[in-house]
Design a protein that fits this description.
pyruvate-formate lyase- activating enzyme, 7-stranded mixed sheet, 18 strands, binds cobalamin
Amino acid sequence: MDLLLISANRETFPDPVYPLGAAYVGDAARKAGHQVRTKDLMWEADPPRSLLEEIRRRPPEAVALSFRNLDNAAWPLTRNYLPSYRLLVRSLRKALASTETPIILGGSAFSLLPDLLLEELDGDYGVTGEGEKSLPLLLEALEHGSSLDGIPGLVRRQGPGEPALLNPPFFRTDPSAGMIRPAPDRSLFDLPRYVRSGGMANIQTKRGCPFHCKYCTYPLLEGGTFRLRAAGEVADELEELVRKDKIRSFFIVDSVFNAPPEHAEAVCEEVLRRNLKVRWSCYVTPAGLTRNLLSIMKQAGCDGIELGTDSAEQGAMAGLGKSFSVSHLTETARWCRELSLPVCHTLLFGGPGETLRSVRETLRTVDDTAPTAVVAMAGIRVYPDTPMATLAESRGLVKKRRDYLDPVFYIEPGLEEDLSETLLSFAKSRGNWVLPGISIPYKPITQKLIRRIGYKKPLWHLLAHAPFKDRIYRDR
Ligand code: B12
């Protein structure tokens, strides 16, 4: 089939992010024999018009959209992308009015609310979870008019007013779903442009997340068990990106890189063995982390970690379902200092069991670890089918499933008044603490300038430096 694959993401904070998921599925569709052309709305001044022109120029036989984000997951400065997606699909419908061309939806944002979004965005079909297997199967079935049963993660409409039909996603139906495709064809989207404007390319070493943080969607999106890529395959992909695209800076997009530790170590050792000279950052959990692994990561080019701290007070940590203790956390921070490995903590305030006392304790404990940077959020973004959702539903925060079409945030009762101010007054006197939901950390123009001069690391590295310190809270 002649497929037009659209990446709908236009968010540029903290950087424009190369649409890796869309590249994976586009590549799979191509390898299955379909013709795939892409449109990346990140770079379009007028997305509906550009799509209209593309469709007029060459009418496709199917259109597939990749939706990465629903919103910026920040409160109270929430940016909801759904209205723009609605407009987008509406204009696609208009452009395709006289045809039978199906519109297929997918991506992490879609996968979080598949039944609601299929209807809300007026798609014909959707795929929840991974699309590499399902999209080619769906295209083939549509092309030949064959049965749609058994396509993993397929979402389709029934009659008017009836709920959408959902098949379980790939990682739930196929116990041998151990392998991820070796590497996607990144030429489907303009990788050099992303690297120029975002500093880094992205790469995945595994899928799945077995941790049980109560608010988190990762097990829903990727499955609750690890599916690992061979270290050699990851190194092949890095090597190719170095050789062919001259890229040496990466973000590893795994839910957490350091688990399981043997796999993280194997990847690092392969990078070292091949002397790849790459620089990379990743998400890390203190759970099960050792100083030795951090040290190997650093030797293999890791130049900063984003630590999924969330909280540093035992009660609040239990409320979020964290798998490590405060002492694990402070020990991790100490190892990072000893190894001169920059650390950015991400913190989530206002979860179940949080009190102003626990907020202050977290602030003090994290500050005492001398972090390079801290990104703190007030309010926990509630996603359906997570333990946080059960709590939010039982407390009447969510009354019906459709309420999830607007971003929902949980804030422990009693904290609504004081939380933002407490965080703000603490952060103001420390230039390396940012609160993206409360005060925008930097302007897009600053981000652009930094990337234009060739800065390749995540921007939180710069927060420790004086010119930023002064700027963060001045522009409120
Ligand atoms: C790594 C990551 C980041 C990194 C990205 C670094 C980089 N250079 O790539 C950083 C830290 C920068 C980041 C930032 C943000 N992120 Co983020 N991020 C992730 C994470 C962990 C992995 C994303 C990824 O690359 N996955 C690997 C690819 C291969 O998977 P994929 O994109 O899902 O694609 C697969 C399927 O979705 C499907 N698919 C994709 N497209 C299509 C299309 C069709 C047609 C079909 C059929 C299937 C399909 O098949 C693909 C292959 O299997 C996800 C959570 C997760 N586990 O998915 C959150 C996630 C995507 N991020 C999220 C958010 C909110 C953000 C931010 C808005 C703010 C924030 N709080 O961090 C920003 C936005 C950045 C931007 N410019 O868009 C949310 C989105 C949900 C929401 N509320 O909207 C997620 C889901 C996390 C969460 N909270 O649940 N993020």
